[in-house]
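Example protein
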Amino acid sequence: MVMAKCEKWLENGKQKGVTMSCHLSKYTPIFLLLALSGLIFLLRNIVTLENLNCQTVSRLYQFQSGLHSTFTQEETSPLYHNHSFCSNLGQEPSPGEALEERYLLDSISWPEPLAHPSSSLIPLRQTSDPVHSLFAILPAAGGRREWHVGDQLEVLVQMHDFQGRPKRYGGDFLVARLHSPELTAGVAGRVLDHRNGFYSALLPLLWEGSARVEVTLVHPSEAVAVLRRLREERPDRVFFKSLFRSNSLSETTVCNMCLSPSQQPLCNYTDLYSGEPWYCYKPKMLSCNTRINHAKGGYQKHLITNKEALFFQSGVNLKVPIHASGSDRINVLPKMKDKPEVESSSTQSEPVKVIPSGYYYGGSWKPLAGVTMHQFNDSSAIIQCLKGKVVNMYGDSTVRQWFEYLNAFVPELKEFNLHSPKNIGPFMAVDSTHNILLKYRCHGPPIRFSTVASSELRYIANELDGLPGGPDTVVVLSIWAHFSTFPVEVYIRRLRHIRRALVRLLDRAPGTVVVIRSANFQVLDQEVSLYNSDWYSLQLDAVLRAMFKEMDVLLVDAWEMTLAHYLPHALHPPPAIIKNMIDMLLSYICPERKRN
C-alpha cells in the first residue's frame, strides 16, 4: 500500500532521479509516518527495486551479463495468479479445438491424495516412503517361474508410508525399467496406478540373459499435489525481464505471459500472426517500442510451506529406488516357438500390452517400429546422409545440443560467425563442398535464456511458414522444457499453432522431413522439482505425442531413451545418449541407407 502511494507521488512529483520528494503538507502525522516508513524502505532497496518504478530512470542494466545474479525475488512485482486468466490468453479456440483441449486435459488427469483436502495438512509420516515400500516379480503366465523373450514381465508394487502402513490411495509418480549392465541393455517399463496403494509395472522382455528390475519413486502423491497447485496458481514462479533503452535512458521491467493490468500499464507484445501473448510492464519514461531484449529474470522463492518441503527430500522421497521383497533379477530364456508375441503374468484377465518405442542393446538404441536405425560412426557417413540438405532446428537448448554435437563431430561443417551470444543463437554451420546447411534458432517466449535480442525472438510457427520445404529440407523441433511452469492449456495452444504451420508446410511441400524430439528425464532436487519436475515433463510429453500422433512427423523418443539408459538423468543428456539420438535422426533423414 505504501509502495503504491509512493509510486503515485513520484509520478506527480517534479523530481525524477534517485532523490525523492513527496508532498505531504496536508496529511496527518500518522500518514506522514507511513509515508516516511515507505520512503525508508525504498531507499534501502533502491538498487533492486527498479521494477517498482519508484526510480524512473534506471541504469541498472548496464551490464547484461550480470542479469541473472541481479534479479532476485525481492525485485519482482506481484503477478496475476489466476489460472483461467493465464490459460485463456490468446485467440479463442474453435469448438473443435476446445473439445480437443478438454480431451487432452482429461487424458493427463492425475489422482489426488485422499487422506486430507490439502497436501499441506498431510504429515510426512503418512506420505509414501520408498524404504518401507516394496515390489515383487510375479510369476509368468500359468504360474511358471521362467520367462522367455517375447514375454511381458509384471511387477507388483505396494506403497507404504513412513510408519510402515500400507497406502490406501494412488497418485505416486513411479517409473520402472529393466536393464542388463553386462549387456548394456535396457528398456523402459509402463506403470499402472490401481489407485489403492498398489501399482503394476509392465516390462517387455526383449533380449536373452540376466536382467534386473528397477522401480523408482520420483515423487510421492503428496508432492505431485503440490506441483499441480503450483502449475495452476503460480505461472509467475519463473519471471522474465526486458530492457528498454533510448539514448542515455534505460529501464528494466518484469515481463511474462500472465501479468495483471491492474498493477501498472502493460506493453502488449502479442504476436500478430500466431496470436501468442506476451506482456511487459510499461516503463515509466520510455515507450513500448524501445524494448531491446528479453531475458530470464529469476525464480520466485518461498513457494511452498515447510511441511510441503518435506515431500521433496533428495535421498528420502525424491527419485529414490524401491527395493524388491525377493529377488529383483530374472533370467530371460530364448523365445519359445509357437507362443503369443507378448504373454503377461496371470494376475491380469486382460493383460495390457506394452510396446516401447525401442530399447538398448550393446549400448545402441534399437527402435521397435518404423525405420531401422543405422550407426553413423564417422563424419563421412553423416556428410553422405546430409549432402544437399538444409537442416532447420528450432526449440530449446535440448535441440541446440544436437546442433553442437553435429558441428563438433563433423569437421567439414564450419560454423558461420553470426555474432550470436554463446548458448543463445541463432547459429549456422555450412559445408559448402557438400552443400549442407545446418541452422538453429531458439523458440519464442517463454524462453529462459540469459539475454536474447528482441529482434531475434521468433515463434516456431512463423518460422515454419517462411520455409519453402521439399525433399531436401529437414525440420527438427524440441519445445517443452520452458513450459513446465505454465498451465497445460498454454502448451496446448503453442503446439496447436505449430501444428497448423506444419500442416501448411507439408501441404505445399509433402517431401519435407519433420522430426520432433520428446521431453527427457533430468536430475532433480527440491528446487529444480518446483520448476522443472519430471512430472511436469511427463504431462507435456503426453500432450505433445497426442497432438502430433496423426501427422506425418517422426519422433525421437528422448523420454524412453533417457529412462532406459544406465547413465544418470540430466536435462542435457550425456554424449552416449545424444549419439543414439543423432543416429535416430539421421536414420529418419536417410532411411534407405545401408549398414556399413
The chain has a mean pLDDT of 85.
